[in-house]
């Protein structure tokens, strides 16, 4: 990984986890040409998976914190795909799914947790297109799941 990205993560008090293994019959990422498609990543925090439903169990701030964990897992997958060198990647798009009640409308605020982290860590290479959508439920009862598309040089 590039020193600048390592330094930025350390400055933010963060570190990347090992790239999470898939939980079923799929691969964590696929590279085709110069694109890396990273499967949905779950919010693995220091106390395990962040679970709960936004609008019932969690507020937007807690959801944004969970989205940061997803972003770290996405970066870990991108690092693995780039042979350990995140300076080779640019984020193209995030798709965020928020486990939320029917009357919760702050999905974008939740996914901002991931978007803000990507820009903080990758700078201009972290600016991206994005979707933030509600889901009635998510695997293992997690609060958020986010997938990403990266470009690799």
From TrEMBL:
<dbReference type="Pfam" id="PF14588">
    <property type="entry name" value="YjgF_endoribonc"/>
</dbReference>
<dbReference type="InterPro" id="IPR013813">
    <property type="entry name" value="Endoribo_LPSP/chorism_mut-like"/>
</dbReference>
<protein>
    <submittedName>
        <fullName>Enamine deaminase RidA, house cleaning of reactive enamine intermediates, YjgF/YER057c/UK114 family</fullName>
    </submittedName>
</protein>
<feature type="domain" description="Endoribonuclease L-PSP/chorismate mutase-like">
    <location>
        <begin position="7"/>
        <end position="140"/>
    </location>
</feature>
<dbReference type="InterPro" id="IPR035959">
    <property type="entry name" value="RutC-like_sf"/>
</dbReference>
């Amino acid at each position: 990984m590039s020193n600048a990205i390592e330094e930025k993560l350390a400055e933010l008090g963060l570190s990347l986890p090992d790239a999470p293994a898939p939980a079923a019959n799929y691969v964590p990422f696929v590279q085709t040409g110069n694109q890396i498609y990273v499967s949905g990543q779950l919010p693995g925090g220091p106390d395990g998976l962040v679970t709960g439903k936004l609008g019932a169990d969690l507020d937007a701030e807690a959801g944004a914190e969970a989205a940061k964990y997803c972003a770290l897992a996405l970066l870990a997958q991108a690092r693995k795909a780039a042979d350990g060198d995140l300076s080779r990647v640019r984020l193209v798009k995030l798709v965020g799914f928020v486990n939320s009640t029917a009357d919760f409308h702050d999905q974008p605020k939740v996914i901002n947790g991931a978007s803000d982290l990507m820009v903080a860590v990758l700078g201009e290479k972290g600016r991206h297109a994005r979707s933030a959508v509600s889901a009635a439920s998510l695997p293992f009862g997690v609060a958020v799941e986010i997938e990403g598309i990266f470009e690799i040089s």
